[in-house]
Write a structure and sequence with these properties.
Structural class: mainly beta
Number of helices: 2
Largest sheet: 7 strands, antiparallel
Order of helices and strands: EEEEEEEEEEEEEEEEEEEEEEEEEEHH
Number of strands: 26
Radius of gyration: 18 Å
CATH architecture: Sandwich
CATH topology: Jelly Rolls
Distance between the termini: 43 Å
Bound molecules: cobalt (II) ion
Length: 277
């Protein structure tokens, strides 16, 4: 059931923000439809203060999930969002936005995730769309020693607030007490991942524990059997329908062909991202 455990790497992104990346590296470029999986977590302001000043995106979706701290999001057409602890922002960049993501604090813990989800060819040039969801709108399901926040998709008969996404994503924040377990249904054929946020996870019966900061990639199946060990465990479960299309990516642009990438750079340089909204 577990296909691979991936350790990830500490790198620097934006204007010098220290992050831990597991998907979006040369040895794990794409896990269709997921293009990037980053965790930022630091209580040293020097690691995050510089933030992510103005930068473009085209052809995919960026998902920001905050656990601690506050990040302000501002874009080229005047959309503004202040993401605090527990907020999720699902942004469909579509044909293009220019935005900044800047910390709203000068000290304390900044902790969260950024995930990139690909768009099918038919939707890469769609109008940008934002789904900003406060924590009180994220349902939580409790089952015998496990608490599951449902951000997207469904779990335990409960639907998450993020909707209308073409890859039918499942996005869960799972907290298990020591010794507890949790079973998650996944549609067959969907790509399924689990990132260990705290503690250690047994991702299937008899599998060795997977440590914090590691990503578990599952093989095809219809359910995940997650379990905490001797300590409590928190993990992010992510699944989605693969697109099976060619990926041409460079920096903040993810298209299907090299020509479309060149066009994206030209449109960005000539200011068409701002006009287009
Ligand atoms: Co961005």
């Amino acid at each position: 059931m577990v296909r691979r455990v991936h350790g990830g790497r500490a790198i620097s992104e934006g204007a010098g923000v220290r992050i831990r990346r597991t998907v979006g590296l040369p040895d794990l470029d794409v896990l269709d439809p997921f293009l990037l999986f980053d965790e930022f977590r630091s209580d040293d302001a020097a690691d995050y203060l510089a933030g992510f000043p103005d930068h473009p995106h085209r052809g995919f979706e960026t998902v920001t999930y905050m656990l601690q701290g506050r990040m302000e999001h501002l874009d080229s057409v005047g959309n503004r969002g202040n993401l605090g602890p527990g907020w999720v922002q699902w942004m469909t960049a579509g044909r293009g936005i220019i935005h900044s993501e800047m910390p709203q604090q000068e000290r304390g813990l900044m902790w969260g995730f950024q995930i990139w989800v690909n768009l099918p060819a038919a939707q890469k040039m769609t109008a940008p769309r934002y789904q900003d969801v406060p924590p009180e709108q994220i349902p939580e399901v409790a089952i015998e020693g496990a608490q599951v926040k449902v951000l997207a998709g469904s779990f335990g008969g409960v639907e998450g607030p993020v909707s209308g996404v073409s890859t039918s994503p499942l996005f869960l924040d799972v907290s298990m007490d020591a010794g507890a377990s949790c079973e998650v249904s996944i549609p067959r054929g969907h790509t399924a991942l689990c990132y260990v946020v705290t503690g250690a996870l047994s991702p299937s019966l008899g599998h060795l524990p997977v440590e914090r900061g590691q990503l578990v990639i599952f093989g095809d199946g219809d359910r995940l059997a997650l379990a905490a060990g001797e300590a409590a465990c928190r993990c992010i479960v992510l699944a989605g329908a693969p697109l099976g299309e060619p990926v041409a990516r460079h920096g903040p642009f993810v298209m299907n062909t090299r020509e479309e990438l060149v066009q994206a750079f030209e449109d960005f340089r000539s200011g068409r991202f701002v006009e287009g909204g």
